[in-house]
Design brief:
InterPro entries: Acyl-CoA_Oxase/DH_mid-dom (IPR006091), Acyl-CoA_Oxase/DH_mid-dom_sf (IPR046373), AcylCo_DH-like_C (IPR036250), AcylCo_DH/oxidase_C (IPR009075), AcylCoA_DH/ox_N (IPR013786), AcylCoA_DH/ox_N_sf (IPR037069), AcylCoA_DH/oxidase_NM_dom_sf (IPR009100). The protein is an alpha+beta fold and 379 residues long. The protein has eleven helices and ten strands. The chain has a four-stranded mixed beta sheet with strand order 1-4-5-8, covered by helices on one side. A four-stranded antiparallel beta sheet has the order 2-3-7-6, with no helix packed on it. A two-stranded antiparallel sheet has the order 9-10. A hairpin with a 2-residue loop joins strand 2 and strand 3. Helix 1 runs parallel beside helix 4, helix 7 runs antiparallel to helix 8 and helix 9 packs across helix 11.
Length: 379
């Protein structure tokens, strides 16, 4: 494989080959070990996959959102934990690119683009529902021209290895966002173990014990982050999860088709049973429908159309629930083997369940999408 120049966009066929050869064979082991090896993360950087959406002058390849979604789909097909790291890194990097000032972009984007520094998104509070994005258990107090950050965040994907934390905190004028180096004095990282799914995404609880921040840590004006920084980052995260869910459906489909083509029952192959063929047909239809919804959301993002927010909600809702069903069906098709460690479908099933919870649970999505439907009728 020829070397990729820094601003050259990775081709999907190259990404697919990487997933087939360097991700799929090892994903179950990573899941058991609850970590992804550093050489794999470095390989992601070599392929230019950490932030290909950045413009070339910022170290990216100017990749459009539709193609970025396909990249995250491919990675999600192989390992949802690795795709989750891409998700949060995308959220942080895009935030710096869109909302950061010139000094913040100059300081952080080169390392974020290469993956030399990885980003983590710190919003969820341990004492509040994850969907309660207004919770302000973490606070930042302005003192003598600087800030003092206190509080705790949990379920932080990539928190064990991130070098840059995008932290949301309550301030006197409302929610604010801060860029906090993970090695800053007063930052304490505690790994979260034994997760149901995405076990290799190296989650952490992160505490901030009187962390002193200079004014340049603030992203935008104080009290300004709720409707701008947070909304934009969560929209990108939701989009990545939707696309990654398409990948899970593809993984479940491939595993089920291969298994039923080799396994016999009652004198014939499993693939010839009508119940099996019905489940395979449902997976194919779900894969194609979910991908179309993701592509619609991506096109609207590329066009700068605010309708992308709702399109992404719909894509994530459909894709995540379809992935959960595909994962469950894949385990059922595999029978007892589907519950054991020798086939990938148990991991796919557990990862798919996580997709129904993160970046807006299924129930929150049902409320949000229904609200939009009623607004459309009212017009």
């Amino acid at each position: 494989m020829r070397a990729r120049t820094r601003t050259e966009a990775p081709e999907l066929v190259v990404v697919g080959r990487f997933v087939d050869e360097e991700v799929v064979p090892h994903a179950d082991a990573w899941d058991r070990d609850e970590r992804i090896p550093g050489d794999v993360l470095a390989r992601v950087g070599e392929l230019g996959l950490w932030a290909p959406f950045l413009p070339p002058e910022a170290g990216g390849a100017g990749m459009d959102m539709v193609t970025l979604g396909r990249v995250h789909e491919e990675v999600g097909r192989g390992c949802s934990s690795l795709r989750s790291l891409l998700t949060v890194h995308t959220m942080v990097t895009a935030t710096v690119q869109r909302w950061g000032d010139d000094e913040q972009r100059e300081r952080w984007l080169p390392a974020l683009a290469e993956g030399a520094t990885l980003g983590a998104f710190c919003l969820t509070e341990p004492d509040f529902s994850g969907s309660d994005s207004t919770a302000a258990g973490t606070v930042a107090v302005a003192e003598n021209g600087s800030w003092t950050l206190r509080g705790r965040k949990t379920w932080i994907t990539g928190g064990q290895l991130a070098g840059l934390l995008l932290v949301f905190a309550g301030t006197a004028t409302g929610m604010s966002a801060f860029l906090v180096p993970a090695d800053h004095p007063g930052v304490r990282v505690t790994p979260v173990r034994n997760m149901l799914g995405t076990s290799a995404s190296m989650l952490a609880t992160i505490e901030f014990d009187d962390v002193r921040l200079e004014p340049d840590a603030l992203v935008g004006p104080p009290g300004w982050a709720a409707g701008t920084v947070m909304t934009g980052a969560l929209d990108l995260g939701r989009y990545s999860v939707a696309c990654g869910s398409v990948g899970i459906i593809r993984g479940a489909l491939a595993a089920s088709a291969a298994y039923t083509s080799a396994r016999s029952a009652g004198g014939g192959l499993l693939r010839d049973l009508p119940q099996i063929r019905a489940k395979i047909s449902e997976m194919v239809t779900a894969r194609d429908a979910a991908r179309l919804l993701c592509e619609k959301a991506g096109r609207l993002k590329d066009a700068g159309d605010p309708a992308t927010i709702m399109a992404t909600w719909v894509a994530k809702y459909f894709a995540s629930t379809a992935a959960a069903k595909a994962g469950a069906d894949a385990v059922q098709i595999h029978g007892a083997n589907g519950c054991g460690p020798d086939y990938p479908v148990a991991r796919l099933y557990r990862d798919a369940k996580v997709m129904e919870i993160i970046e807006g649970s299924t129930q929150i999505q049902e409320l949000t999408i229904a609200d939009e439907a009623y607004r459309e009728v009212a017009k």
